[in-house]
Request: fold
Amino acid sequence: MSSDPPLPAAPDVEYCYRHPSEQTGVHCTRCGRPICPACMIEAPVGYQCPECVAEARSEFRNGPGRRIAMANAKAVSVTKVLLGVILAVFAIEVAVGGPGSLLSGPSNPDLIKLGGSVSVVPTPDGGVAGIAAGQYWRIFTSMFLHIGLIHVAFNAYALWIFGTFMEQELGRVRFLLVYLVTGIFAGAAAYAWAPLLVDGRLTITVGAGASGAIFGIFGAFVTYNYRRRGSALAQARLRQAAVLLLLNAAIGLSVPGIDWRAHVGGFVSGLAAGYVAEGSGNLTRRRAILIGGTGVLLLAAAGLMVWRTTDIRSLFPPGSFG
Reply:
């Protein structure tokens, strides 16, 4: 006597754990809970629920993702960032000054509005503006402005050549410190010794450009190789630097409009900053030289600015500067 095999048991009805009214036969491959089509997120194998996906992302960010992000941050080139900022600011200059400013640069009023370095300039309300009026931030902002395409192209090329090398040798932080400190010192030197009166009349000269900071990097390059002058490679680099220095001196003194004071200030401070950035001795001594030397250079720049401001204000009637 034969009998039919028993029928299989009806499968249990499962519902999505996030949407209890939705029947499903799919489970999260991470936690095993049932999920409906609205909650299914494709994974390398099967599907995962939103909570497991969020948890996995959090674990990645706090684990390998964080390590990858830190490694990528360390790989960022400061030289490339500076070049990007300079080119972005130049694009703003052209937008403000119009198409004609691409080659010749913005007008002096536009450069002043954008943060150009100017000692003192009358304002429409009868007052004065400029560094002597307390706008010392112009020393910094003018480092990222340029007067025309040729100006920015030359500076960008020089920054790429010397900046790339010195960043590799000094490291990102110390390289950036040298760039900013020497740029500030160069701006202070230009402000301190720029002529203010021509034939007894006030002359308004607007300074702009990264060349002061680039000459600072160049000065640090000279110091770096001088400290290694025993090697043939360093000697060759020093000879090349001497030729470049003489060439730039000739151009700076013969071509009108070039602020050779900023170049000299940047180069001289760069010679000192190159030693300060490397230091000597053990780690504690090198850190002390870095901090102390940077402070001395910034104090010297501040001293030049205060001295020049006092001198300029003495030429104006009392109350002119508020």
